[in-house]
Amino acid sequence: MHKKAIANKIIKNSEPTDAECILAAQTGDDRAFGMLVSRYQKKVAKVVFGMLGNIDTAEDIGQEVFIRFYKSLDSFRGEAQLGTYLTRIAINLSLNEIKRRKRRNFFSFSAKNDKADIEFSEAVDENRAGDIKDLVNHALKKLNPDFRSVVILRLIEGYSTKETADILKLKTGTVLSRLARAQEKLKVILKNMAFLFLFLHILNLFC
Prior knowledge:
The chain is an all-alpha fold. It has ten helices and no strands. The longest helix is centred in the last third of the chain and has 34 residues, at 172-205.
């Protein structure tokens, strides 16, 4: 479809397809790009917050996903669905942020202070978890990033095993093994957290 025809669809508030919006955006139509952002910003935010938690940098990472996409518009050929393409960018940027955070912690604290700080932060986080959703989010944050990314894509975002493997550039067998190990680790984490909450509740009764 010609750019002018696509622009007319956008002006009339009709629903151009992703492919039509991408074509228009590639020729400089900011409205078309804005429609794509509106369609996928919640999906991207869900992936980023799942990987990083509710931290200040998570919003910046989410915005960076669309900045990267905008810069790569001319080379985008639609070989993968747009949602899958954006999810891959979100996962990669989140993993980079996790690596940066680990390096920053390593150079900012001594090993002893760093360990104490982590234990204190986890205790605060656990005390704030007020419902099942919070509990699961806190448990996910305790997983190794390699396991966390598989769980988010496969179980939360609903991608198939093959799609998850393609996004993470892993073999299907690796995805399945990581998923199985992640599920076992989550069971242990959630069980331990449940015992902690029960203990704190009982403690509060006597305070």
